[in-house]
Amino acid sequence: MWRMGCGLPQVAGWTLATFLAAALGARGGWVLPVSPGYAIQELVLSSGSPTGDVVAVGGAVFVGVSDGSFLPGGNQVVRIDASGETVIATGFEFISGMAYDPVGDRLLVGDNGDSRDTLHAIPAPLSATSAVDAAKVALLPVGSTPAVSDLALDPVVPGRVLWSNAQGSGAGSIQLADLSAGSSSVLQSGLDFAGGLATDGTTIWFGDTDSTTFAARVSAVSYPGTGMASLLADLPAQFDLELAADGSLVVTAGDQILRIDPVGGQVTPLASGAAGSFSFFTGLFVDGQDLYVVDGGLSPGLFHLQLPEPELLELLGAALLCLGGRRHRRDAV
User: How many domains does the chain have?
Assistant: First the structure.
């Protein structure tokens, strides 16, 4: 089913699933100037409700799926491709971040359920025909990655992955896991609900949501973790963040998706839930002008968003500003 949407500025707060009820009523102070048109395809799943993160690679889409129980074993990973849906891993408690490792041909999956808190590697995810048990493909001991939120591969050293720790109350952090050694070290500490995470091997970009106000920021820090600078603040919470091929950052902010210039901090709105399409985003994957997003709100959904080309976004923004100016002039007559 295809729908056309044109979202208007709206700010709605969210945080981790534990705080969903409180966060859905929160409001941030940041207002979008424009929100352009985009095409939406909802990918309806028969195996359960989308949850956690999404990754698209090799003509396939991988997404976490929940049976709604919030119990150990209630989550699984599903591959969607030309042949349909295939469950490739089961036994997760609460899937968080995911990332595809092309060197090892494996899908890395974080589980931040109380009985898990570890990373997993699903082998040969593009060709798997049957499901593996999460416990059998764990990379680190249970409890090694407390409150793991998002994952980002180290582009310089194979076998290392960065992960964000969303423990809250100043206990959150950005950490580096050496999967071959089975160890993890802290790169950035003193955070709250550390969320989205990306790196190019020189800079780390990450989101962090205040555990009291639910206001969020996106920051940059030199790899491996010094000289932090805030790029954008007062967002309505932040869960996922991706580094696009053009060097820009694409981030979730409550029910919004924003593009950020990591140098100047300029913001371009890409999608909004004001039209009723979205509640809050928990997962994001960027492939050019194609975005795959998981809406983890009260009516979970997996969506494929096709955005206009950058030149068209500029034209749409200019047209909206022009129309707004004409309306104000008419009101003044």
Answer: 1
